[in-house]
Design goal:
The protein is α+β, with helices and mostly antiparallel strands. 37% of the residues lie in helices and 20% in strands. It has 2 domains: 65 residues, Rossmann fold; 174 residues, Argininosuccinate synthetase, chain A, domain 2, CATH 3.90.1260. The chain has a 5-stranded antiparallel sheet, covered by helices on one side. β3 and β4 form a beta hairpin. α4 crosses α5 and α6 packs antiparallel against α7. It is globular. The chain starts with 6 loop residues before the first strand and ends in a 12-residue tail after the last helix.
């Protein structure tokens, strides 16, 4: 609107999810916009049947591209990740060569010494990173440093077959070094601060949120509602998580929070801590009522197989 444009365009193919994400967002933000998508135009499809034709065109016209005939991968790169598709990766039984990876070091280059970092969160948002060489704050510097650390330790490789929204299964190789570290630290701190039943709802909503984002419904009323609930759940996720980076893994080893629901005295094996263990007897008996009734009526507990006589 600022530029007075009537058209927007993108270079996503007609087989993938990106076209859906782009165009649903366009129409949600400006309902009367017109979309130009070459991969769905007859003239373009007649001229270019695939990536080889496009590489030939780039050669003929001196257009620089990163793909080659030996490495014709389709790659999308941003701060969070890089994805690799096409070429030999179209065979789900083919092991991806190390040359595919660009954001994570190969296993033979992983350091032999672990590295300990601390991630600080406020309402679920990462605000500070402490590492051996210092500290960084701010979303961009923090994520860039996590990517650097994750790359060195080979963290965040994914190789999977997924279900595209258009109905096609596709094989993709992903690298998300900073994202993997951040995810593990965040989930760990949630375990310390978030109520058990809220965590269950979060798990259900996380699956729906991932589906909506993957399918391009970022600017939808259902996603707005869902994220409002998520934001509410994140209000208590304050504190810090220590994560050890070592040979392809990022695993939390310590955590602390002013909102911690963990009571060390209550959880102690050596102190009562206001928890009367005798109360557990009635709790268990009440929960056993329906199990006892099932066994009494059926003559055996559900799931127990009766052996046949020889």
């Amino acid at each position: 609107e600022k530029e007075g444009a009537q058209f927007v365009g993108h270079g996503a193919t007609g087989k993938g999810n990106d076209q859906v994400r782009f165009e649903l967002s366009y129409y949600a933000l400006k309902p009367d916009i017109k979309v130009l998508a070459p991969w769905k135009m007859e003239e373009f499809l007649t001229r270019f049947e695939g990536r080889t034709d496009m590489l030939n065109y780039a050669d003929q016209h001196g257009i620089p591209v990163t793909a080659t005939r030996k490495k014709p991968y389709s790659e999308d790169d941003n701060l969070l990740h890089i994805s690799h598709e096409a070429g030999v990766l179209e065979d789900p039984n083919a092991i991806a060569d190390e040359e595919v990876y660009s954001r994570t070091s190969s296993p033979d280059q992983w350091p032999d010494e672990a590295e300990l970092i601390t991630l600080h969160f406020e309402a679920g948002i990462p605000v500070k990173l402490d590492y051996a060489g210092g500290s960084v704050t701010g979303p961009l510097p923090l994520f860039q440093k996590l990517n650097e650390l994750g790359t060195r330790h080979g963290i965040g490789r994914l190789d999977m077959v997924e279900n595209r929204f258009v109905g096609i299964k596709s094989r993709g190789v992903y690298e998300t070094p900073g994202g993997a570290i951040l995810h593990n630290a965040h989930r760990d701190l949630e375990g310390l601060t978030m109520d058990r039943e809220v965590m269950k709802i979060r798990d259900m909503l996380s699956l729906k949120a991932a589906e909506l984002i993957y399918n391009g419904f970022w600017f939808s009323p259902e996603f707005e509602l869902l994220m409002t609930t998520m934001d509410k759940a994140q209000e208590v996720v304050n504190g810090a998580a220590q994560v050890r980076l070592y040979k392809g893994s990022a695993y939390p080893v310590a955590r602390t929070s002013p909102n911690a629901l963990y009571d060390p005295v209550q959880s102690s094996m050596d102190e009562e801590g206001g928890y009367d263990q005798k109360d557990a007897e009635g709790f268990i008996k009440i929960n056993a009522v329906r199990l006892r009734n099932n066994t009494t009526v059926r003559g055996k507990a559900p799931g127990v197989k009766t052996s046949k006589a020889a």
